[in-house]
Description:
This protein has helices at residues 3-10, 16-28, 33-39, 48-62, 69-79, 84-97, 104-133, 138-153, 164-179, 193-199, 218-233, 246-258, 262-267, 272-287, 300-308, 337-355, 387-391, and strands at 207-212, 236-241, 290-293, 313-319, 359-364, 394-400, 413-421, 427-434, 439-442. The protein has 17 helices and 9 strands.
Amino acid sequence: MAFEDEILTRQMPHSLEAEQSALGSMLIDADCIKDVMDKLQPDDFYIRQNREIFETIYTMFSYSKAIDGITVAEEMQKNGTYDDQTTRNYLVQLMEITPTAANVMEYVKIIQDKSLLRSLAKAAGEITAMVQEGLGEAKDILEASEQKVYAIRRGRGSQEMTPVAQLIKPFLDQLNDLASGKTGLPGLPSGFSAVDQKIHGLNKSDLILLAARPGVGKSSFAMNMALNVARQSQKTVAVFSLEMSKEQLLVRLMASEGLVDLNKLMTGRLSASDWGKITQAARTLRQADIRIDDNPMLTAADMNAKCRRLENLGLVVVDYLQLMSSAGGKSYAGENRQQAVSDISRMLKIMAKELNVPVICLSQLSRANEKREDKRPMLSDLRDSGAIEQDADIVLFLYREDYYKEETENRNVAECIVAKNRHGETGKVPLRWAPEYVTFSTLEMRFDEEG
């Protein structure tokens, strides 16, 4: 093999023609720039000169400046990127080799592919180095490798730092959508409008802690939210149920979606109208992409790995925190249970950030509230608390007066107490609880038995 050929085969994957044609397209037709900006980052360009031209166009686009061969040359001269004549000659050459901007997205796709291959090659090299240097046990290296590959899939290098300038455009776009009423909430709607008003929906990378005493309805409330998100956003919802089996969860979903009495579903004593409701509920549930894992031995790392493989993930629900195993199956006795819970809650927060989706984690409350006159839960009631309260972006408590007092006039009325909220205000939201359908609704809605 000739020396030149060997050098070429050792080069990282790239396409000079695609890079030049994409830049040429943007210079001769400013209309296509907005489409390209959504798809490419400066690092996707392999040739340094091309990367610097794209970076200049990127910055000019962020500031809404006019973009053509002359303005780009002036901007680059101002930045001192290249001497005047070389830059102008190269820009003219780019415009000459690109007859039309019609195929610009084809060029973009080639650039993306080559960039992805380079990222994979880099990650593979780093993984090989970790193996050869014996950095940690096999499972640690596997976890780090999955993280690297997942970071590429998500479109960001695992170690890259993001300049604030690159965050401005997406932020302004989102602000514009909110201001023009295109999107009502920054986050996904939970299905409970009054709760959404306080927490602004279920936001990406949030850890939302939902806590209550056993039997108040945490699982039902979380599944009501899960079904709503799956239905409204058309995204996948991952549910990790460490307590209930998938069959038990399905029965509850059927009861709450079809408004059919749970006891009837358990015993099979169904009327003709019940069958009609169940058929309708089944149709709705078939269209909602909810994935259930009921393995009680799952760790946060297992959950993270499973969620990474889901393409269109919108929400993760974990039911419930105190049943989770710590990483590596470590068992903590007595005192150290607190340490285990804090390790797990920390990992759940990291998972929410890494997957960039909201994670709803259910938690049991200690009995501390039962000693008080007002039995509404407080942050200090969180079992094995401390770290959970710190890691959570939002803490929601469920409270029902009829759980403690049989004779109350507030039968089947629940409160969702927003006890901590990084995005806004705290406070109470009244909810209606329908125990026979194991479902919550906003208080204005009335359940009609025949509905």
